[in-house]
Amino acid sequence: MASPQIENGFTKIANELLDALCCLQLSGHEWAIVHAVIRKTYGYNKKEDWMTNTQIMALTGQSQQKVSLAKKKLVEKNIVIENGNKTSVNKDYESWCRVTENDNSVIENGNKKLSKTVNTKESKYNITKDNKEEGIVDNSNTLVEKNVKVTDMADFNPLGAEIIHAMVNIDPKNKTYYGNKTQRAACDFLIEEYGLQETKNRILIINKTNGVPFFPTITTPVQLRDKWVQLEKAVERHKREAGTNSVAF
């Protein structure tokens, strides 16, 4: 059983900075990078330090692609600073850029709205009024059923349709979910948190594990989102007990 003690080392961080971090809305990958940067700097009583993506990968357990992408986003938001080969957390939290959940405007400097807002999700995903009536069509040739009635689908990543399409092989009922906001929101979370390809790979696993003892039953994107960790632990257990890598991610 883990029993951390400050006698074995601790990280000193200003409460004011910690309070500001508590207000941030970041993805799991971005939070992991922030914590890694804090550990590599304040954890060694340094304001900044030279750290490679390989070092961050070792701390977070994330792939190089996810580390690079998450760190890039944090730099763009001015939360993490790269000064040559050195990296640090930007202590000037009033200069951080944030995107709120219910507002597409960029917020900075004590919650003052910038006069220039970021692109809306509709323009980001290249969805027009015409193609919303016919079904989602974008430049990535996303798989979508043309006759599905779509309501406010400009709010969702069209790549989520590929997840639903893959889930149809698990349960045909999923073909009715292209226009379901709850399921599409789950698809967006999966893409943001794990990536499209990794999510589709996980769906292939589900096709083998549904109905198997100790494995969770997953038939929808929402269930995949909510039971992702449970499925991962079940697969690891299976690998240990079987002594094989026959089921892997």
Write the layout of secondary structure elements.
Layout: H1 15-22, H2 28-41, E1 49-50, H3 53-60, H4 64-76, E2 80-83, E3 86-89, E4 98-99, E5 106-108, E6 112-113, H5 121-124, H6 129-134, H7 160-167, H8 181-194, H9 196-209, H10 221-226, H11 228-242
Antiparallel strand pairs: 1-3, 2-3, 4-5, 5-6
Distance between the termini: 28 Å
Number of domains: 2
Largest sheet: 3 strands, antiparallel
Helix content: 40-55%
Q: How much of the residues is beta strand, in percent?
A: 5-15%
Order of strands across the biggest sheet? 1-3-2
Report the count of strand segments: 6
In the predicted model, the low-confidence regions spanning at least 5 consecutive residues are 99-151
Topology order in helix (H) and strand (E) letters: HHEHHEEEEEHHHHHHH
Query: Number of DSSP helices?
Result: 11
Shape: globular
Radius of gyration based on Cα positions: 21 Å
Notable characteristics:
249 residues, mainly alpha, Arc Repressor Mutant, subunit A, 2 domains, three-stranded antiparallel sheet, 6 strands, 7% strand, globular
Structure, described:
The chain is mainly alpha-helical and 249 residues long. It has 2 domains: 10-113, Arc Repressor Mutant, subunit A; 122-242, no CATH class. 44% of the residues lie in helices and 7% in strands. The chain has helices at 15-22, 28-41, 53-60, 64-76, 121-124, 129-134, 160-167, 181-194, 196-209, 221-226, 228-242; strands spanning 49-50, 80-83, 86-89, 98-99, 106-108, 112-113. The strands form 2 sheets. Strands 1-3-2 form a 3-stranded antiparallel sheet. The chain has a 3-stranded antiparallel sheet with strand order 4-5-6, with no helix packed on it. Helix 2 (28-41) crosses helix 4 (64-76), helix 7 (160-167) crosses helix 8 and helix 8 (181-194) crosses helix 9 (196-209). The longest helix is centred in the last third of the chain and has 15 residues, at 228-242. The radius of gyration is 21 Å and the shape is globular. The model is unreliable at 99-151 (pLDDT under 50).
